[in-house]
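Complex 461.
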Amino acid sequence: MTKTGQLWGGRFTEKPHETFAEFNDSFPFDRRLFAADIRGSIAHAGGLMRAGLITADEADSIIGGLTQLLTDSAIDADFFDSNAEDVHSFIEGRLVDAIGDAGRKLHTGRSRNDQVATAFRIWLRDEIGEIDILIHDLQAAIIDIADGFRDAVMPGYTHLQRAQPVLFAHWCLAYFEMLKRDRDRLADTMRRVNVMPLGSGALAGTGFPIDREAVAAELGFTAVSANSLDAVSDRDFAVEFTSACSLLMVHLSRLAEDMIIYCSTEFGFIKLSDAVSSGSSLMPQKKNPDALELLRGKSGRVFGHNAALLSMLKGLPLAYNKDMQEDKEAVFDTVDTVKISLRAAAIVVENAVVDEERTREAATTGYLNATELADYLVKKGVPFRTAHDAVGRIVLLGMEQGKELNGLTLDEMRAVSNEIGSDVFDALELGSTLESKSAIGGTARSNVNDALTHARTYLNG
Ligand code: ARG
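Predicted structure with arginine bound:
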Protein backbone atom coordinates (compact mmCIF):
# COMPACT_ATOMS: atom_id res chain seq x y z
CA MET A 1 0.00 0.00 0.00
CA THR A 2 1.36 3.44 -0.89
CA LYS A 3 1.68 5.60 2.17
CA THR A 4 -0.48 8.67 2.54
CA GLY A 5 1.31 11.61 0.97
CA GLN A 6 4.58 9.69 0.68
CA LEU A 7 7.23 12.38 0.21
CA TRP A 8 9.98 10.27 -1.31
CA GLY A 9 10.25 7.03 -3.25
CA GLY A 10 11.28 8.01 -6.79
CA ARG A 11 14.67 6.37 -6.45
CA PHE A 12 13.38 3.33 -4.59
CA THR A 13 12.46 0.06 -6.25
CA GLU A 14 11.32 -1.75 -3.13
CA LYS A 15 8.61 -0.88 -0.62
CA PRO A 16 9.61 -0.21 3.00
CA HIS A 17 9.49 -3.30 5.20
CA GLU A 18 6.49 -3.04 7.47
CA THR A 19 8.65 -3.33 10.57
CA PHE A 20 10.84 -0.52 9.28
CA ALA A 21 7.74 1.57 8.61
CA GLU A 22 6.52 1.00 12.15
CA PHE A 23 9.97 1.89 13.48
CA ASN A 24 10.40 4.94 11.29
CA ASP A 25 6.96 6.52 11.35
CA SER A 26 6.42 9.40 13.71
CA PHE A 27 2.81 10.16 12.82
CA PRO A 28 1.40 8.28 15.83
CA PHE A 29 2.96 10.98 18.03
CA ASP A 30 3.93 13.95 15.87
CA ARG A 31 0.32 14.48 14.81
CA ARG A 32 0.29 16.79 17.81
CA LEU A 33 2.13 19.25 15.57
CA PHE A 34 -0.77 19.26 13.09
CA ALA A 35 -1.99 22.83 13.68
CA ALA A 36 1.53 24.22 14.13
CA ASP A 37 2.76 22.62 10.91
CA ILE A 38 -0.21 24.02 9.00
CA ARG A 39 0.51 27.50 10.35
CA GLY A 40 4.10 27.15 9.15
CA SER A 41 2.93 25.93 5.73
CA ILE A 42 0.46 28.79 5.30
CA ALA A 43 3.23 31.31 5.95
CA HIS A 44 5.58 29.41 3.62
CA ALA A 45 2.96 29.56 0.83
CA GLY A 46 2.83 33.34 1.29
CA GLY A 47 6.62 33.45 1.02
CA LEU A 48 6.57 31.37 -2.17
CA MET A 49 4.00 33.66 -3.72
CA ARG A 50 5.88 36.84 -2.88
CA ALA A 51 9.00 35.27 -4.39
CA GLY A 52 7.05 34.63 -7.60
CA LEU A 53 7.31 30.84 -7.26
CA ILE A 54 3.57 30.26 -7.18
CA THR A 55 0.74 32.44 -8.49
CA ALA A 56 -1.67 34.32 -6.27
CA ASP A 57 -4.38 31.83 -7.28
CA GLU A 58 -2.22 28.90 -6.33
CA ALA A 59 -1.37 30.53 -3.01
CA ASP A 60 -5.07 31.12 -2.35
CA SER A 61 -5.86 27.56 -3.18
CA ILE A 62 -3.05 26.21 -0.94
CA ILE A 63 -3.89 28.51 1.95
CA GLY A 64 -7.61 27.78 1.56
CA GLY A 65 -6.97 24.03 1.52
CA LEU A 66 -4.72 24.17 4.58
CA THR A 67 -7.18 26.34 6.48
CA GLN A 68 -9.92 23.87 5.63
CA LEU A 69 -7.83 21.02 7.05
CA LEU A 70 -7.56 22.92 10.33
CA THR A 71 -11.33 22.97 10.72
CA ASP A 72 -12.09 19.58 9.17
CA SER A 73 -13.91 17.63 11.85
CA ALA A 74 -13.24 14.31 10.11
CA ILE A 75 -9.48 14.77 10.55
CA ASP A 76 -9.41 13.28 14.05
CA ALA A 77 -10.65 9.93 12.77
CA ASP A 78 -8.08 10.09 9.94
CA PHE A 79 -5.37 10.51 12.53
CA PHE A 80 -6.01 7.01 13.73
CA ASP A 81 -6.58 5.38 10.35
CA SER A 82 -3.81 7.03 8.42
CA ASN A 83 -0.60 5.21 7.61
CA ALA A 84 1.22 8.47 6.92
CA GLU A 85 4.92 8.54 7.77
CA ASP A 86 4.71 11.76 9.69
CA VAL A 87 2.52 14.80 10.22
CA HIS A 88 4.19 16.63 7.32
CA SER A 89 3.42 13.93 4.78
CA PHE A 90 -0.08 13.55 6.20
CA ILE A 91 -0.85 17.24 5.70
CA GLU A 92 0.70 17.41 2.25
CA GLY A 93 -1.16 14.26 1.18
CA ARG A 94 -4.49 15.66 2.38
CA LEU A 95 -3.80 18.98 0.71
CA VAL A 96 -3.06 17.37 -2.65
CA ASP A 97 -6.21 15.23 -2.30
CA ALA A 98 -8.22 18.38 -1.67
CA ILE A 99 -6.79 20.90 -4.14
CA GLY A 100 -4.83 18.86 -6.67
CA ASP A 101 -1.61 19.93 -8.35
CA ALA A 102 -1.22 23.31 -6.66
CA GLY A 103 -0.67 21.35 -3.45
CA ARG A 104 2.35 19.69 -5.04
CA LYS A 105 4.08 23.06 -5.20
CA LEU A 106 3.93 23.75 -1.47
CA HIS A 107 7.18 21.96 -0.65
CA THR A 108 9.17 24.20 -3.03
CA GLY A 109 12.20 25.69 -1.32
CA ARG A 110 11.88 23.81 1.93
CA SER A 111 12.79 20.47 3.46
CA ARG A 112 11.14 18.57 6.26
CA ASN A 113 14.29 19.40 8.19
CA ASP A 114 13.56 23.11 8.42
CA GLN A 115 9.83 22.44 8.39
CA VAL A 116 9.79 20.15 11.42
CA ALA A 117 12.03 22.42 13.47
CA THR A 118 9.72 25.32 12.65
CA ALA A 119 6.52 23.48 13.56
CA PHE A 120 8.07 22.18 16.77
CA ARG A 121 9.07 25.68 17.82
CA ILE A 122 5.63 27.11 17.00
CA TRP A 123 4.00 24.36 19.04
CA LEU A 124 6.38 24.74 21.98
CA ARG A 125 5.94 28.51 22.10
CA ASP A 126 2.24 28.09 22.76
CA GLU A 127 2.84 25.41 25.36
CA ILE A 128 5.38 27.55 27.21
CA GLY A 129 2.73 30.26 27.34
CA GLU A 130 0.26 27.82 28.89
CA ILE A 131 2.81 26.49 31.37
CA ASP A 132 3.61 30.05 32.43
CA ILE A 133 -0.06 30.64 33.24
CA LEU A 134 -0.24 27.40 35.24
CA ILE A 135 2.85 28.37 37.26
CA HIS A 136 1.23 31.75 37.89
CA ASP A 137 -1.92 29.97 39.13
CA LEU A 138 0.09 27.80 41.51
CA GLN A 139 1.89 30.89 42.80
CA ALA A 140 -1.50 32.51 43.39
CA ALA A 141 -2.70 29.45 45.34
CA ILE A 142 0.47 29.61 47.45
CA ILE A 143 0.00 33.29 48.22
CA ASP A 144 -3.69 32.70 49.05
CA ILE A 145 -2.88 30.06 51.64
CA ALA A 146 -0.09 32.26 53.04
CA ASP A 147 -2.65 35.05 53.45
CA GLY A 148 -5.26 32.70 54.86
CA PHE A 149 -2.88 31.63 57.64
CA ARG A 150 -0.98 34.88 58.04
CA ASP A 151 -0.48 34.42 61.79
CA ALA A 152 0.62 30.81 61.69
CA VAL A 153 4.11 30.20 63.08
CA MET A 154 5.96 26.97 62.49
CA PRO A 155 9.38 25.52 63.09
CA GLY A 156 11.88 25.98 60.29
CA TYR A 157 14.15 22.97 59.82
CA THR A 158 17.69 22.15 58.87
CA HIS A 159 18.64 18.47 58.63
CA LEU A 160 14.91 17.98 59.30
CA GLN A 161 15.63 18.95 62.91
CA ARG A 162 13.79 21.88 64.46
CA ALA A 163 15.97 24.93 63.90
CA GLN A 164 14.34 28.35 64.25
CA PRO A 165 10.74 29.54 64.14
CA VAL A 166 9.40 31.05 60.91
CA LEU A 167 6.06 32.35 59.78
CA PHE A 168 4.12 29.80 57.74
CA ALA A 169 3.77 32.56 55.12
CA HIS A 170 7.56 32.76 54.96
CA TRP A 171 7.68 29.06 54.07
CA CYS A 172 5.04 29.68 51.39
CA LEU A 173 7.00 32.60 49.97
CA ALA A 174 10.07 30.38 49.62
CA TYR A 175 8.18 28.28 47.06
CA PHE A 176 6.79 31.41 45.45
CA GLU A 177 10.39 32.55 44.82
CA MET A 178 11.41 29.22 43.29
CA LEU A 179 8.46 29.35 40.92
CA LYS A 180 9.30 32.92 40.01
CA ARG A 181 12.74 31.77 38.90
CA ASP A 182 11.11 28.96 36.93
CA ARG A 183 9.00 31.49 35.05
CA ASP A 184 12.08 33.61 34.36
CA ARG A 185 13.94 30.58 33.04
CA LEU A 186 11.08 29.65 30.72
CA ALA A 187 10.79 33.24 29.51
CA ASP A 188 14.49 33.20 28.73
CA THR A 189 14.18 29.84 27.00
CA MET A 190 11.36 31.33 24.94
CA ARG A 191 13.76 33.89 23.44
CA ARG A 192 15.69 31.05 21.83
CA VAL A 193 12.63 28.94 20.98
CA ASN A 194 11.22 31.87 19.08
CA VAL A 195 13.76 31.84 16.24
CA MET A 196 12.62 30.62 12.82
CA PRO A 197 14.59 27.87 11.01
CA LEU A 198 12.25 27.84 7.97
CA GLY A 199 14.18 28.83 4.87
CA SER A 200 17.24 26.79 5.82
CA GLY A 201 16.26 24.03 3.39
CA ALA A 202 17.63 20.57 4.08
CA LEU A 203 20.93 21.95 5.40
CA ALA A 204 22.53 24.41 2.97
CA GLY A 205 19.86 27.08 2.73
CA THR A 206 17.14 27.60 0.16
CA GLY A 207 17.85 28.18 -3.51
CA PHE A 208 14.85 30.44 -3.97
CA PRO A 209 14.58 34.16 -3.19
CA ILE A 210 12.23 33.76 -0.23
CA ASP A 211 12.04 36.71 2.16
CA ARG A 212 12.58 34.80 5.38
CA GLU A 213 12.07 37.83 7.55
CA ALA A 214 8.60 38.45 6.15
CA VAL A 215 7.66 34.79 6.76
CA ALA A 216 9.03 35.01 10.31
CA ALA A 217 7.05 38.17 11.00
CA GLU A 218 3.86 36.48 9.81
CA LEU A 219 4.52 33.56 12.17
CA GLY A 220 5.36 35.80 15.13
CA PHE A 221 9.00 34.73 15.30
CA THR A 222 11.30 37.41 16.69
CA ALA A 223 14.33 36.34 14.62
CA VAL A 224 15.42 34.09 11.76
CA SER A 225 18.19 31.56 12.24
CA ALA A 226 21.58 32.81 11.04
CA ASN A 227 23.14 29.55 9.83
CA SER A 228 21.29 26.85 7.92
CA LEU A 229 23.42 23.94 9.17
CA ASP A 230 22.88 25.00 12.75
CA ALA A 231 19.20 25.75 12.21
CA VAL A 232 18.19 22.25 11.08
CA SER A 233 20.28 20.47 13.68
CA ASP A 234 19.72 22.76 16.66
CA ARG A 235 17.59 21.26 19.42
CA ASP A 236 19.14 23.37 22.17
CA PHE A 237 15.73 24.92 22.70
CA ALA A 238 14.25 21.51 23.51
CA VAL A 239 17.06 20.76 25.97
CA GLU A 240 16.71 24.17 27.58
CA PHE A 241 13.00 23.61 27.88
CA THR A 242 13.27 20.17 29.50
CA SER A 243 16.04 21.51 31.70
CA ALA A 244 13.95 24.47 32.90
CA CYS A 245 11.09 22.01 33.44
CA SER A 246 13.38 19.68 35.39
CA LEU A 247 14.13 22.43 37.88
CA LEU A 248 10.46 23.31 38.03
CA MET A 249 9.72 19.66 38.85
CA VAL A 250 12.46 19.70 41.50
CA HIS A 251 10.60 22.56 43.14
CA LEU A 252 7.23 20.83 42.92
CA SER A 253 8.80 17.68 44.30
CA ARG A 254 10.32 19.49 47.26
CA LEU A 255 7.03 21.26 47.95
CA ALA A 256 5.36 17.85 47.84
CA GLU A 257 7.91 16.31 50.19
CA ASP A 258 7.55 19.13 52.73
CA MET A 259 3.78 18.74 52.66
CA ILE A 260 3.95 14.94 52.88
CA ILE A 261 5.98 15.30 56.07
CA TYR A 262 3.76 18.05 57.44
CA CYS A 263 0.55 16.09 56.94
CA SER A 264 1.81 12.98 58.71
CA THR A 265 0.27 12.19 62.11
CA GLU A 266 3.67 12.77 63.70
CA PHE A 267 3.79 16.36 62.46
CA GLY A 268 0.11 17.18 61.98
CA PHE A 269 0.90 20.67 60.68
CA ILE A 270 -1.44 20.54 57.72
CA LYS A 271 -4.52 18.64 56.68
CA LEU A 272 -5.01 17.73 53.07
CA SER A 273 -8.41 17.70 51.49
CA ASP A 274 -10.03 14.30 50.91
CA ALA A 275 -10.35 15.44 47.31
CA VAL A 276 -6.61 15.00 46.74
CA SER A 277 -5.99 11.96 48.93
CA SER A 278 -6.81 8.32 48.61
CA GLY A 279 -7.47 5.47 50.98
CA SER A 280 -5.99 2.05 51.51
CA SER A 281 -7.68 -1.05 50.18
CA LEU A 282 -6.74 -2.84 53.38
CA MET A 283 -6.34 -0.34 56.21
CA PRO A 284 -9.63 1.50 56.74
CA GLN A 285 -8.11 4.38 58.71
CA LYS A 286 -5.61 5.42 56.02
CA LYS A 287 -5.65 8.71 54.14
CA ASN A 288 -2.67 8.88 51.83
CA PRO A 289 -1.18 11.97 50.18
CA ASP A 290 -1.17 10.38 46.71
CA ALA A 291 -1.32 13.65 44.81
CA LEU A 292 1.84 14.83 46.54
CA GLU A 293 3.60 11.52 46.09
CA LEU A 294 2.85 11.61 42.37
CA LEU A 295 4.25 15.14 42.15
CA ARG A 296 7.43 13.86 43.74
CA GLY A 297 7.48 10.74 41.58
CA LYS A 298 6.73 12.40 38.26
CA SER A 299 9.72 14.69 38.53
CA GLY A 300 11.91 11.71 37.59
CA ARG A 301 10.31 11.33 34.17
CA VAL A 302 11.08 14.91 33.27
CA PHE A 303 14.73 14.60 34.35
CA GLY A 304 14.84 11.45 32.22
CA HIS A 305 13.59 13.30 29.15
CA ASN A 306 16.23 15.98 29.68
CA ALA A 307 18.97 13.34 29.92
CA ALA A 308 17.56 11.52 26.89
CA LEU A 309 17.76 14.65 24.74
CA LEU A 310 21.31 15.43 25.80
CA SER A 311 22.52 11.93 25.06
CA MET A 312 20.61 11.79 21.77
CA LEU A 313 22.34 14.97 20.58
CA LYS A 314 25.88 14.59 21.85
CA GLY A 315 27.34 12.45 19.10
CA LEU A 316 25.42 13.75 16.10
CA PRO A 317 27.36 15.02 13.10
CA LEU A 318 25.95 18.09 11.40
CA ALA A 319 23.28 18.52 10.26
CA TYR A 320 19.90 16.75 10.55
CA ASN A 321 19.92 13.09 11.56
CA LYS A 322 16.91 10.90 12.13
CA ASP A 323 17.91 10.45 15.76
CA MET A 324 16.43 13.90 16.21
CA GLN A 325 12.93 12.59 15.64
CA GLU A 326 13.28 11.31 19.22
CA ASP A 327 13.01 14.90 20.43
CA LYS A 328 9.23 14.91 20.08
CA GLU A 329 8.10 12.35 22.63
CA ALA A 330 10.57 13.67 25.19
CA VAL A 331 9.22 17.18 24.89
CA PHE A 332 5.57 16.15 24.53
CA ASP A 333 5.66 14.07 27.69
CA THR A 334 7.52 16.83 29.52
CA VAL A 335 4.77 19.28 28.59
CA ASP A 336 2.00 16.88 29.62
CA THR A 337 3.68 15.94 32.90
CA VAL A 338 4.48 19.50 33.87
CA LYS A 339 0.99 20.78 33.08
CA ILE A 340 -0.92 18.15 35.05
CA SER A 341 1.60 18.42 37.90
CA LEU A 342 1.11 22.18 38.15
CA ARG A 343 -2.66 21.82 38.14
CA ALA A 344 -2.54 19.09 40.78
CA ALA A 345 -0.15 21.09 42.99
CA ALA A 346 -2.45 24.12 42.88
CA ILE A 347 -5.46 22.06 43.95
CA VAL A 348 -3.56 20.45 46.84
CA VAL A 349 -2.35 23.84 48.09
CA GLU A 350 -5.73 25.56 47.66
CA ASN A 351 -7.46 22.92 49.76
CA ALA A 352 -4.89 22.42 52.51
CA VAL A 353 -5.60 23.62 56.05
CA VAL A 354 -2.92 24.57 58.57
CA ASP A 355 -3.33 23.46 62.19
CA GLU A 356 -2.04 26.69 63.69
CA GLU A 357 -2.08 25.42 67.26
CA ARG A 358 0.01 22.45 66.36
CA THR A 359 2.56 24.45 64.37
CA ARG A 360 2.86 27.03 67.15
CA GLU A 361 3.32 24.33 69.77
CA ALA A 362 6.08 22.80 67.64
CA ALA A 363 7.70 26.20 67.15
CA THR A 364 7.88 26.84 70.90
CA THR A 365 9.37 23.52 71.96
CA GLY A 366 12.76 22.03 71.16
CA TYR A 367 14.96 25.09 71.94
CA LEU A 368 14.22 26.92 68.68
CA ASN A 369 15.08 30.16 70.52
CA ALA A 370 18.61 29.05 71.49
CA THR A 371 20.17 31.11 68.70
CA GLU A 372 18.12 34.02 69.98
CA LEU A 373 19.76 33.66 73.40
CA ALA A 374 23.20 33.61 71.79
CA ASP A 375 22.30 36.76 69.79
CA TYR A 376 21.06 38.33 73.04
CA LEU A 377 24.47 37.74 74.62
CA VAL A 378 26.20 39.16 71.55
CA LYS A 379 24.16 42.34 72.00
CA LYS A 380 25.50 42.44 75.59
CA GLY A 381 29.04 42.41 74.21
CA VAL A 382 29.84 38.68 74.45
CA PRO A 383 31.76 37.33 71.42
CA PHE A 384 29.46 35.05 69.43
CA ARG A 385 31.64 31.97 69.84
CA THR A 386 31.64 32.40 73.65
CA ALA A 387 27.89 33.02 73.60
CA HIS A 388 27.31 29.92 71.49
CA ASP A 389 29.18 27.79 73.98
CA ALA A 390 27.37 29.28 76.99
CA VAL A 391 23.96 28.77 75.39
CA GLY A 392 24.88 25.19 74.58
CA ARG A 393 25.46 24.63 78.26
CA ILE A 394 22.16 26.34 79.15
CA VAL A 395 20.34 24.09 76.66
CA LEU A 396 21.93 21.06 78.28
CA LEU A 397 20.71 22.30 81.65
CA GLY A 398 17.19 22.70 80.25
CA MET A 399 17.27 19.20 78.75
CA GLU A 400 18.35 17.72 82.07
CA GLN A 401 15.42 19.43 83.80
CA GLY A 402 12.94 18.82 80.99
CA LYS A 403 12.43 22.57 80.56
CA GLU A 404 12.47 25.00 77.65
CA LEU A 405 14.87 27.99 77.96
CA ASN A 406 12.00 30.23 79.08
CA GLY A 407 11.29 27.73 81.86
CA LEU A 408 14.69 28.14 83.52
CA THR A 409 15.14 30.73 86.25
CA LEU A 410 17.28 33.80 85.80
CA ASP A 411 19.71 32.48 88.42
CA GLU A 412 20.09 29.18 86.65
CA MET A 413 20.97 30.97 83.42
CA ARG A 414 23.23 33.50 85.14
CA ALA A 415 25.16 30.65 86.72
CA VAL A 416 26.35 29.88 83.18
CA SER A 417 26.66 33.44 81.90
CA ASN A 418 26.35 36.42 84.21
CA GLU A 419 25.77 38.84 81.32
CA ILE A 420 22.19 37.55 81.23
CA GLY A 421 19.70 40.00 82.73
CA SER A 422 15.97 39.93 83.46
CA ASP A 423 15.22 41.27 79.97
CA VAL A 424 16.22 37.83 78.63
CA PHE A 425 12.68 36.48 78.95
CA ASP A 426 11.34 39.06 76.50
CA ALA A 427 14.09 38.16 74.07
CA LEU A 428 13.18 34.49 74.29
CA GLU A 429 9.51 35.08 73.41
CA LEU A 430 8.38 33.60 70.12
CA GLY A 431 7.33 37.05 68.89
CA SER A 432 10.74 38.63 69.53
CA THR A 433 12.50 35.69 67.95
CA LEU A 434 10.56 36.28 64.74
CA GLU A 435 10.72 40.07 64.85
CA SER A 436 14.49 40.10 65.23
CA LYS A 437 14.85 38.59 61.72
CA SER A 438 14.16 41.89 60.06
CA ALA A 439 17.10 42.17 57.66
CA ILE A 440 16.03 41.75 54.02
CA GLY A 441 14.74 38.26 53.35
CA GLY A 442 14.19 37.35 57.01
CA THR A 443 10.98 36.07 58.56
CA ALA A 444 10.02 39.22 60.54
CA ARG A 445 6.33 39.98 60.19
CA SER A 446 6.87 43.31 58.42
CA ASN A 447 9.19 41.69 55.85
CA VAL A 448 6.73 38.92 55.18
CA ASN A 449 3.84 41.37 54.83
CA ASP A 450 5.86 43.39 52.33
CA ALA A 451 6.78 40.23 50.44
CA LEU A 452 3.12 39.22 50.27
CA THR A 453 2.21 42.65 48.91
CA HIS A 454 4.96 42.43 46.30
CA ALA A 455 3.83 38.95 45.39
CA ARG A 456 0.28 40.20 44.79
CA THR A 457 1.55 43.04 42.59
CA TYR A 458 3.69 40.58 40.63
CA LEU A 459 0.77 38.19 40.18
CA ASN A 460 -1.54 40.96 38.96
CA GLY A 461 1.16 42.44 36.72
N1 ARG B 1 9.58 13.19 11.29
C1 ARG B 1 10.85 13.82 11.11
C2 ARG B 1 11.36 14.37 12.44
O1 ARG B 1 10.57 14.51 13.31
C3 ARG B 1 10.74 14.91 10.12
C4 ARG B 1 12.02 15.24 9.45
C5 ARG B 1 12.41 14.17 8.54
N2 ARG B 1 13.47 14.59 7.69
C6 ARG B 1 14.18 13.68 7.02
N3 ARG B 1 15.12 14.12 6.30
N4 ARG B 1 13.92 12.42 7.12
O2 ARG B 1 12.50 14.60 12.64
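The CA atoms of residues 38 and 66 lie 6 Å apart.
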